[in-house]
């Protein structure tokens, strides 16, 4: 075995051992079907590690920083997201395996990396993703409605404190309305999914809406210049869209750019139209505040 091949084998051995520890830790923190799936993944990774160890004849240590990072992700944003993100990094591992395909047995490992793990991770169930539709409902409506309302208030009211107050009252009332809509939608979906709670669906929708409202009105408390506040609010809206689209894209294996551009465009177009309506009403009625 030449030096370059040996280094590649040791890197693969370390990667498989590291992933074994990640899956094992997540399995201990999970229950039911998720725990069984994660234990299966951990066993597979250990077998892959053992294969590389027989070739290298050496003992390697896992990447503890990698393990700590994915444990943190799993706790904060969910197991499925953490594992999907980890899978994306495995593209490099698969490229390395293809370079080592001349070694007997590597084809089987490559097949596992490309298909088997994807299939197993698809079996994982997580509350955050079960209620993703409710979160999207609250997020989409808050971004579209409140960016539009704040843009209209900005030109019509011309006072940062008044705009923030009007935005909060509008957003709070709308969050209650959206929670009610989420509850009714959850009841309809419960007919097809008995594990989904309409009350939880309402909470996810309403809380998501209200948190988004608080983020979007914050610039009006921070800036006295209403146009600086509006630009900051619109920028925050785009950042929120990007962050959530990335999360859902990774967790559900969806394409990022089409969803991000569509959602961002809708929010910004509504804001522009509302700003125009605010200007028109102010001009027509001669309101001065």
What are the SSEs and their pairings?
Layout: H1 3-28, H2 32-56, H3 64-77, H4 79-99, H5 106-122, H6 127-130, H7 132-157, H8 160-190, H9 198-222, H10 226-251, H11 256-285
Sum this structure up briefly.
The protein is mainly α.
Describe this structure in words.
The chain is mainly alpha-helical and 289 residues long. It has two domains: 3-125; 128-285, no CATH class. Helices cover 85% and strands 0% of the residues. The chain has helices at residues 3-28, 32-56, 64-77, 79-99, 106-122, 127-130, 132-157, 160-190, 198-222, 226-251, 256-285. Helix 1 (3-28) runs antiparallel to helix 2 and helix 7 packs antiparallel against helix 8. It is elongated. The termini are far apart. The model has no long low-confidence stretch (mean pLDDT 84).
What keywords describe this structure?
mainly alpha, 289 residues, elongated
Number of domains: 2
By DSSP (H or I, 4+ residues per run), the number of helices equals 11
What integer value in Å does the Rg equal? 25 Å
Number of strand elements: 0
The unreliable regions are none
- The biggest beta sheet, please? none
Global shape: elongated
Report helical residue fraction.
over 70%
What percent of residues are in strands?
under 5%
Q: How does the helix and strand content classify structurally?
A: mainly alpha
């Amino acid at each position: 075995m030449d030096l370059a091949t040996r280094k590649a084998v040791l890197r693969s051995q370390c990667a498989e051992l590291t992933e074994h520890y990640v899956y094992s830790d997540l399995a201990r923190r999970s229950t039911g079907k998720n725990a069984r799936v994660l234990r299966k993944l951990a066993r597979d990774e250990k077998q892959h590690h053992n294969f590389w160890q027989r070739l290298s004849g050496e003992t390697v240590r896992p990447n503890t920083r990698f393990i700590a990072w994915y444990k943190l992700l799993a706790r904060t944003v969910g197991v499925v997201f953490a594992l999907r993100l980890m899978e994306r990094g495995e593209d490099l591992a698969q490229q390395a395996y293809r370079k080592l395909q001349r070694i007997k047995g590597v084809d089987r490992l490559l097949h596992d990396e490309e298909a088997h793990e994807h299939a197993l991770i698809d079996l994982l169930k997580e509350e955050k993703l079960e209620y993703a539709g409710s979160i999207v409902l609250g997020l989409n409506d808050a971004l579209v409605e409140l960016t539009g309302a704040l843009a209209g208030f900005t030109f019509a009211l011309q006072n940062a404190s008044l705009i923030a107050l009007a935005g909060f009252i509008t957003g709070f009332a709308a969050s209650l309305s959206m929670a009610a809509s989420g509850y009714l939608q959850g009841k309809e979906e419960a007919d097809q999914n008995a594990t989904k709670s309409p009350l939880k669906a309402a909470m996810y929708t309403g809380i998501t809406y209200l948190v988004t409202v608080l983020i979007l009105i914050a610039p009006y408390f921070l800036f006295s210049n209403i146009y600086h506040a509006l630009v900051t609010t619109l920028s925050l809206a785009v950042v929120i869209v990007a962050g959530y689209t990335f999360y859902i894209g990774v967790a559900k294996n969806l394409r990022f750019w089409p969803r991000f551009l569509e959602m961002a465009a809708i929010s910004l177009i509504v804001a522009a139209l509302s700003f125009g309506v605010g200007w028109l009403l102010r001009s027509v009625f001669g309101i001065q505040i």
